[in-house]
Known about the structure:
Blueprint: H1 2-13, H2 17-22, E1 33-41, E2 44-52, E3 78-80, E4 85-87, E5 97-101, E6 105-107, E7 110-112, E8 115-122, E9 128-133, E10 149-155, E11 158-173, E12 177-194, H3 198-210, H4 218-230, H5 235-247, H6 256-268, H7 272-284, H8 288-300, H9 304-317, H10 322-336, H11 339-350, H12 363-375
Antiparallel strand pairs: 1-2, 2-5, 3-4, 5-8, 6-7, 6-12, 8-9, 9-10, 11-12
Helix pairs in contact: 4-5, 4-6, 5-6, 6-7, 8-9, 8-10, 9-10, 10-11, 11-12
Amino acid sequence: MFKKTCISLLLLFLSNNTLFAQNGITLPESSNQKVSLSQWIGLVEANVTYNSPNVTNPRSGEDRTGKIWGKLVPYGFHFVTFANQMIPWRAGAQTNTVFTVSHDVKIEGQHLPAGKYGLFMLAGKEEWTIIFSKNYNSWGALYYDQKEDALRVTVKPTKTHFTEWLTYDFIERKSDHAIMALKWEYLSVPVKIEVPNINELYVEKLRSDLRNGAGFSDSNWTEAINFCVTNNINLEEALKWADYAINRQWFGNKNFGTYSAKANVLEKLGRVEEAKALRAEALKTANAKEISSEGRRLLSKNKIKEALKLYALNAKKFPEETFMIHVDFAKVYTALGNKKKAIKHWEIALNNVSDRTDQKVFLPRYNSALKKLKENK
């Protein structure tokens, strides 16, 4: 009798079509359908693959709301006769829930190497333990072994809207981290995945890109250089890239973009006088838009009088660029507190809007700036 009971329990526990498919046949999915979800954090891919159970019992139709946590999913470890041991929850249904990450990351502030992991959880009323196991290809949690843990972290569950099917979702997505949450019934279990060296990964990718087809365009080199400057990373190598962009055979160009990129690096490295001389060379090659952008850079550094001098040069060299030139004058005179001149230049600019101008999208903002100046005269 005991043997028959054990066999019955085993068949019930293993009643999923994925197992049968492994033994040579494929049948339709059971009610706990398989899901695979990926999220990229910059260059890093995080994936969770799981089987998704329903709050409603697929066999009896029973509504199990209020009977999930602490009952259907026990709190902490629970004893399974077949495994003859205490095991965690497999964080889904049927076969292992599997978490894969393409690069090293931090999970709730703790290091997890790139790889594939079995994802297990210990539910709790106030706190959950999330387990990343090196064993990801055993069936469910039956063969769970604590010695194979790669990482354990603890998190706090939160209340959420009703979720019928157990679902993993990335509920926060930023440039250097994401929050993955298990959601089922009225509970959400968030887990933070962080890429602490995100900019280093981009630099590594830039090195690879520039050694291929992308390296035959000086603009790609300048964008790579400016990325390093913006993020204050890899500056010595960025300076070498700047020399390539200016002087290298086949693709090197002596223009505003390449000179300015090198000047940006030199400034970051504290070589201010060299940068200043190079910016003077850059301006000799600049068109109206490039002079305008240099003026905006000076304004952003509160070098207002230098910006005004540059805008005067632009007006002299390119008088046909009426709209752009007077927008720039309006901004610089606003920064100087000269409302009368700022209003004058806004009005000239807005009376000379061309159908071809790439700044038409900013017209509401420009009109608002003019209105505000007039109201505060």
